[in-house]
Structures are given as C-alpha cells and as structure tokens.
Write a structure and sequence with these properties.
The structure is a homodimer. Chain A is of the alpha/beta class. Chain A folds into two domains: 119 residues, 3-Layer(aba) Sandwich (Cobalt-precorrin-4 Transmethylase, domain 1), CATH 3.40.1010; 98 residues, Tetrapyrrole methylase, C-terminal domain (Methyltransferase, Cobalt-precorrin-4 Transmethylase, Domain 2, 2-Layer Sandwich), CATH 3.30.950. Chain A contains seven helices and ten strands. In chain A, the strands form two sheets. In chain A, strands 3-2-4-1-5 form a five-stranded parallel beta sheet, sandwiched between helices. In chain A, strands 6-7-10-8-9 form a five-stranded mixed beta sheet, with helices on both faces. In chain A, α6 packs across α7. Chain A starts with a strand and ends in an 8-residue tail after the last strand. In chain A, 48% of the residues are buried.
C-alpha cells in the first residue's frame, strides 16, 4: 500500500485561520513537507509550528526564488522524488501550503509530478484575497459583480486594459511591481479608491491607501479595488 | 459597552472546512444569527450545528429569495435592528455566513447597516472557488495567470465576451442559468474543457464534465475552466 499525498492549505498566516481539517491532518501526519527559501525561513512551517508532532518526519524543500525556471524545476524534481520515496514506503505525506494549495500555490508543481502515480487529496484554505478583504473591512463582490484577479508582474499595458474593464480588482504578487501598478491606477483615475494590504491576518499587518504604500512592497502584499456601489445600502 | 459584531465565514459546507477561529468564536458566542429561507432550512446553522452551545441566544433571519429587492431589503432592515438590540445590550453577535462573508455573501447587507455604529470583525473563510478546485483536483492559477469570477445571471453576450478574453474562469451562481452558460462555452469551443462541481465538500458532492451537468443545476454549483497549460510540468 502506497501512502496518500495531501496538499494542506494553511491560509494567509494567522494559524487560527487554518481549517479544522488542516489542523487534524497536520497533527496526525507521519510526514510533513514544506517549501523554504534556501538557508531561510519556511513561512508554511511557521504557520503550522504548534501542530507538528515531535516524532513527525519532516521534508524541508529548499526552492530557489529566481525568474529562471531551470533551478526551481530541478528543485521540484528532487523534492518530488523525496516525497515519492515516503509514499512508496506506505507513509502519507502532508505538504504544507501557504494560502490555498491550488490558488497561485507552488504545491501544483508537486501535484503535476506526483498525481499520476499516487492518490492525492487537497484541503482548500482561506486565500489572501478574502483575508485582505476581511482585514480591510472591504466587501469584495455581491450579486452580479465580477471579480478579476491579476498578478502584478503582468505588463503595464495589459494591467491597464484589464483594470479598466473590470469591476472588483485584486492585484496579487505586488512586491517590486507596486510602482508600475500605482501608475496604472493613477492613469485610470482609480488610485484613490484602491487599498493596499500587507501581511493580512498577521500581527504586523498594515492597511494603507494605495497612494501611501511602500515601494518596493513586501512579497506578502495585495491591492484591492472595489468599484461596485451597493444599491442595497 | 456595546457588543461587537462578527461576520463568521463558515466555508463551503463541510464543517471541518471551518477555520479554527470561526469554531472558537461560535462555541463562545452569546448570540448567533443566521440567514434562513422562510419556513426552510438554514444551511449556515447546519454547518455550525455541532458548535452552537445550548444556552446561546439565536436570531434566525428569514430572508425571502426573490429577484425583487424590496422584500429582502425590508428583511435586512428588520434583522439588523434585532442584532442592534443585542449589541446595545452589550452582547457580541456572531453572524454565521456560508462560504466567505465578503465574497458574494449576504452578510454585507448587515455590514452596510451596522458597521457605522458598531465595531465589526470579519473572519475570512474558504470560498466555494477553492473548495471546488480542490474537489475537482484542478489547480486554478499559477505564476502570471489571470482569474476571472463571473456570476451566471450576467447576459449571454457579456458572458461570451468576458470568457473569451479570460484565462481561468469561475462561474458562480450557476443554478437555472446553466443552459445559457453551456451555450456560451459551446460557442467558444471551450465546453469540453469546463468542469461542473455541485455541493463541493459535502457528502453529496458531484463533479461532472459541463456537457453532462443537470439543467437546471442546484443553487450550490459552479463551473471551472482552466485554460492555462503549465510549462513547468
């Protein structure tokens, strides 16, 4: 009997925003695996820290953060093989995933390598999208409103075209792209309505008007724009 | 001292997909409030059933489901007043919300009526979007891919234009609009790539190719289309 691979979503950062299911599976796991920056912290491991039992086997996956693909591809190949060895030995493996495993999560690179061979279960989680909306007290969408999620690295012209035709807009992966994003919002006359949220749900969370957001922004930051006026008010 | 209003997101239906924070706040609540169909069930109350203590005060909010706005507006006015009376008496009120309170959730109509007067905290939750993706084992988006969320009641021409220019597409509120939605996907040559998910995370969950989905579909159903091919595979 081979083991089962779990993609366990941990939510945006506050350990209490983990689901009951995620907490149960992590506490009972034979093996946990989690991404980490080489020689750096693992945010995923930190979120789950209070739940990982002392005798749990741990696979720390060092993933280089580069814009080149080859080094990260090699890292996913290598770590998928380490996980496969545990599964082949009959042990379930719980992969700890920041946010939601299938929403801009790196778990999908392990999923692509392992799901053809092993049984997989995904535990969905709270995304940064609704965590930021909750922190900013900003309802995202109602009734027939559309929501558009855009990654910050997209080219300036494309961002402009997509935001212009959108209703609610969520900008992910803001980081060093914030200057470009702010120019786009300014050009569209929307900058004063946009809200910047950094490290939502963590003690160091910050919520600022976009005009006052830092440049560069940290990796865990997001911009929300809600155009919809609600006639039910 | 007035009480505090909590918007407690419950997730997609499986009680284990509630967050630890939601579970703690519901178990300790003096007052819980929840929407219900007149003379019908409350899905929100059912998700939280095992957590509501016997001595908790309960506010059942009957909300008529109509396309006319006036009856629902009157119901939100009336129930906001009932909640305000509890808050004025110094009791915290936990409003139970299916999915996420601020993502197409009816809690925002209470928020609009009460947040100017009372302290509010929102506990974000797992949306049906990532719950359906998890159930269907369908990674939603990676890297610079865009995600577009569209409500099913939008006009056919608008759906067509929005889906054509999109990458990952999430169709909410499918229900009786499924025939129209299917026609749009067929016209765009995308129907065979679209996945229909019904009652994600519940025991009666069903996952079908869009072509085989029922018409009408139940209220709790969604269609996912992921166009992105992943070159990291």
């Amino acid at each position: 009997m081979t083991g089962r691979l779990y993609g366990i979503s941990l939510g945006p950062g506050d350990p209490e925003l983990m689901t009951l299911k995620a907490a149960r599976l992590i506490a009972g796991a034979s093996v946990v695996a989690y991404p980490a920056l080489p020689e750096g912290e693992s945010f995923a491991r930190a979120i789950a820290a209070d739940l990982v039992a002392p005798d749990t086997r741990e696979i720390r996956m060092d993933i280089p953060m580069t814009t080149e693909r080859a080094p990260a591809q090699a890292a996913y190949d290598r770590n998928a093989a380490r996980i496969a060895a545990e599964l082949d030995a009959g042990r379930d493996v719980a992969v700890l995933c920041e946010g939601d495993a299938f929403f801009y999560g790196s778990f999908m690179y392990l999923f692509a390598r392992l799901s053809g061979t092993y049984a997989v279960e995904i535990v969905p989680g709270v995304t940064s999208v609704t965590a930021c909306a909750a922190s900013a007290l900003l309802p995202l969408a109602a009734r027939n409103e559309r929501v558009t999620v855009l990654p910050g690295p997209l080219p300036e012209d494309e961002l402009k075209a997509r935001i212009e035709g959108a209703e609610t807009v969520v900008l992910m992966k803001v980081g060093r792209h914030i200057g470009k994003i702010r120019r786009v919002f300014q050009a569209l006359g929307l900058a004063e309505h946009a809200v910047y949220v950094e490290r939502a749900s963590l003690p160091e969370q910050r919520i600022l008007p976009l005009e006052k957001a830092p440049d560069p922004a940290p990796y865990f930051s997001m911009i929300l724009l809600v155009k919809g006026a609600d006639p039910w008010l």
